[in-house]
Amino acid sequence: xxxxxxxxxxNRNRTGQGGSGQPxxxxxxxxxxxxxxxxxxxxxxxxxDSGDNALVTYPDQLRLLAVHAHPDDESSKxxxxxxxxVAEGARVMVATCTGGERGSVxxxxxxxxxxxxxxxxIRVEEMAEARRILGIEQEFLGFVDSGLPEGDPLPPLxxxxxxxxxxxxxxxxxxxxxxxxxxxxxxxxxxxxxxxxPDHIRTHEISVHAFEAAGDPERYPDLGEPWQPSKLYYHMSxxxxxxxxxxxxxxxxxxxxxxxxxxxxxxPARDVSHRVTTRVDCAEWFPVRDAALVAHATQIDPLxxxxxxxxxxxxxxxxxxxxxxxxxxxxxGKPEDDLFAGVRSEVAxx
Length: 350
Ligand SMILES: [Zn+2]
Description:
Elements: H1 34-38, E1 45-46, E2 56-57, E3 63-68, H2 73-76, H3 79-87, E4 91-98, H4 113-117, H5 119-134, E5 137-143, H6 167-170, H7 172-181, E6 185-188, H8 198-213, E7 231-235, H9 240-252, H10 260-265, E8 278-281, H11 286-295, H12 311-317, E9 320-328, H13 344-348
Parallel strand pairs: 3-4, 3-6, 4-5, 6-7
Antiparallel strand pairs: 1-2, 7-9, 8-9
Helix pairs in contact: 5-11, 7-8
The protein binds zinc ion.
Zinc ion binds at residues 2, 10-11, 69-70, 73, 197, 200.
């Protein structure tokens, strides 16, 4: 929930903490192949509830790649969507650009010297647990967290950090991953990062760059066979419309709303409600999303505002995660209720 006014503000810079530990590439252990969750590989079944829902599709041929800046971002943005598509048999991959090495410890229960000592390694372990809970595949792209600059004037970004790597180089590992994983759908943040962290803005930039470059044989010729994803989405779940709806529902029950202050301070100019093109119904997987969030124990306080809105209120009042369709190379109408709308028909005839 790195939205406007949203807590927690992960990955805060911490004075004196270097970006020592390198994130290592990790892959899922002991995970069933996605198709094993739902049935034998290649068994035809109906597509989900979208435009081409009457078509028989092969869900294990649907592939979603979600590009995120730090470990924990995948669990706060689009996690229930990912869990739903995994349950349907699709393959879902998260690319985590940095290791979150300059993140802070945001959970008081974890604010201990032994945690600070090995924070980069702990964040890799937390990511592995969240990956297991969500049933996804996940890889680190190997960049070093830029930290969130604070102060006036802002301090310079640390040497060698993700946000300072030239765009052509910063996008290269993502181009390679796109060509290897071959997703039809890519999700990322909008041009403002969804949250003003230099790594989030850089994540947007490399995602757009790689989306355009991965299908072009002239670009990055040494990084695998070209593959052009069909759709690019930006996360749009942290809208004023959603927050207001949740706020009003909580107030109606007579309880105190955790959102009153955020709503009062929300800058309408930064709201994204009008940009939403696609709402993915995933309320059934909100508990999975929350379990994945809790796995990021250094970043998430289980007693904090993340969990202040009762689950049944969320599921009843706003059962979707929301997106903006930023690019599409397939036919699809708007509004949509499925990230694979327009893709399922192409997969079905392959
Ligand atoms: Zn982040």
